[in-house]
Automatic annotation (TrEMBL):
It comes from the Eukaryota. This is Ammonia transport outward protein 3. The chain crosses the membrane at residues 76-97, 109-130, 136-154, 175-192, 198-221. One of its GO terms (biological process) is nitrogen utilization. Keywords: Membrane, Transmembrane, Transmembrane helix. It is a multi-pass membrane protein. Belongs to the acetate uptake transporter (AceTr) (TC 2.A.96) family. Its main location: membrane. It is found in: Membrane. One of its GO terms (molecular function) is acetate transmembrane transporter activity. It holds the Pfam family Gpr1_Fun34_YaaH.
Amino acid sequence: MSVNSNKKEYEGVMTYETSSSNEIEKQQTSNQYTRTINEIVTDGDLVTLGNHTYRRGDLLRAFNADVVPTSNQRQFANPIPLGLASFSFSCLVLSLVNANVRGVTENKFLISTFMFFGGAIELFAGLLCFVTGDTYAMTVFSSFGGFWICFGCINTDQFHSISAYGDDTKMLQNVTGFFLAGWVVFTFLMLMCTLKSTWGLFLLLFTLDLTFLFLCIGNFIGNNNVRMAGGYFGILSSCCGWYSLYCAVANDQNTYFPLRATVMPNFPTV
């Protein structure tokens, strides 16, 4: 009897100890899930929650991923092909005139092209690049949109930009050279920012810089042959623009002949 009694008492102790340990584990688990953050501290881009510090952008992405499904996020169209189309078309037709192709030397017919398709549309494409966060494309397209608008205004009689110089053609050539020299510098700076992009974009700006350079020199020295050389380089630049445009819009879903843009060495990959 004493043996059985001791056994029952031992079992009772074990049962009590087991139930006590379960309660302790439940209490620890409850405390673990009911822990509260006592302090939230922000320091610039850093957010401290309790004893842990996070980047503000990481927290926003984490919360957005939980609240807004990725498939419902708004997608913006790529405005770069629009800017390339505007530039390539305007550059082609002007360069054909500068090269005196088929004896054409007057560009009055193209003023509307310069003002609207080359100017307004390209400026609009640059502003759309601002929305998509592409600083480089915004700068290039908006600036050249301004160039086409300026060029259209210069050749519009109502602005008297050319007639104001009267018979002083030398001064007109010099001031035109100044105008083109500024674009030589700007295009060169933008060219330096394409050394890790695609060959199409690099060659577009390289030949465009040569276009401005030859047109600038041709105006300073009054040599039409040099200006014609600038026109031919402009034709090459527009062809590079057409190529880049097609690479940007052609894919397996819309054509049997897609082209992939050829990237330069050290092209950044994500």
